[in-house]
Specification:
By secondary structure, the chain is mainly α. The chain has one domain. Helices cover about 80% and strands about 0% of the residues. The longest helix is centred in the N-terminal third of the chain and has 65 residues.
Length: about 270
């Protein structure tokens, strides 16, 4: 087949620029998808670690705080005219109620599991980020719709729900909003704007990741993992330490009860 004049004509400058921008956009979108995946992994791993920590250590701290509150309240009841004792008792009770509430929520939740994404989960998430990410559109309504879909995708990823990720991706691919057809001039403007949006989102992800990496939770997780590599179960050591404190608090509370009972007996004997 003989090429037509239209097929052999040199590309116009705006078409050449559009080609370059599309290549740049494709590369940046792939980078964005990879960074979103790393950020999602980091959030999921920290969330799983936090749930495990609360499950194994938090509930024991709640028990310890309750015992401390009872000790403070017993001391305050023996010193009704001492403002300091009353204040300490109120603060101890407030702290105990707070940790109890958090522990009850954790107790009712399923047993925590560590997070480990499969290669297929990672592939699916990359595809979702490439196709659905809200920073890949300049249309306000479409951006809002994609933000909701990405929130659902993040939730599914953290839950390890591969079928839900597939469902989100397939539903989006079949939607009429994905059908596009524009001239080279408009496409060039759209590509430039999308590149700017993607660069902005990459910068946001970097800032978010830095904040997570500096968090106390991440530092604690890193210390525990480093200790595990050297054969130490630091989480178990923490549990053992809290249980020792619980035993001491129980002993102290029982001792206070015995003392109170003895004083009460003496008063009745008079």
């Amino acid at each position: 087949m003989t090429p037509t004049k239209e097929d052999t004509r040199p590309a116009k400058p705006e078409e050449q620029e559009l080609l370059r921008k599309r290549e740049e956009q494709t590369a940046l979108e792939s980078e964005l998808a990879e960074r979103e995946l790393r950020a999602a992994n980091l959030r999921a791993e920290l969330g799983a670690f936090e749930r495990r920590y609360l499950h194994e250590v938090g509930m024991r701290y709640a028990q310890l705080d309750e015992l401390k509150a009872q000790i403070a309240e017993r001391a305050a009841s023996g010193q009704p005219g001492t403002d300091r004792a009353q204040q300490v008792a109120r603060e101890a009770r407030a702290r105990a109620d707070e940790t109890k509430s958090a522990a009850q929520e954790e107790e009712n939740a399923p047993a925590p599991k560590s997070f480990k994404a499969t290669p297929e989960m990672k592939r699916l998430y990359r595809e979702v980020a490439k196709r659905i990410h809200p920073d890949l559109t300049s249309d306000r309504d479409e951006r809002a719709r994609r933000q909701l879909l990405m929130a659902e995708a993040n939730k599914a990823y953290e839950a390890g729900d591969e079928s839900q990720l597939n469902k989100i991706l397939n539903a989006y691919e079949a939607s009429p909003e994905t059908v596009q057809g524009e001239g080279p001039g408009a496409e060039l403007i759209r590509a430039i704007r999308r590149i700017s949006q993607v660069r902005g989102r990459i910068a946001e992800i970097e800032a978010e990741a830095e904040e997570l990496l500096r968090s106390d939770l991440y530092q604690l997780k890193s210390r525990l993992e480093e200790a595990e590599r050297h054969g130490r179960d630091v989480l178990k050591e923490m549990v053992d330490k809290v249980e020792q404190q619980i035993a001491q608090a129980k002993s102290r509370l029982e001792s206070n009860q015995d003392t109170a009972a003895m004083l009460h007996g003496r008063l009745e004997a008079r």
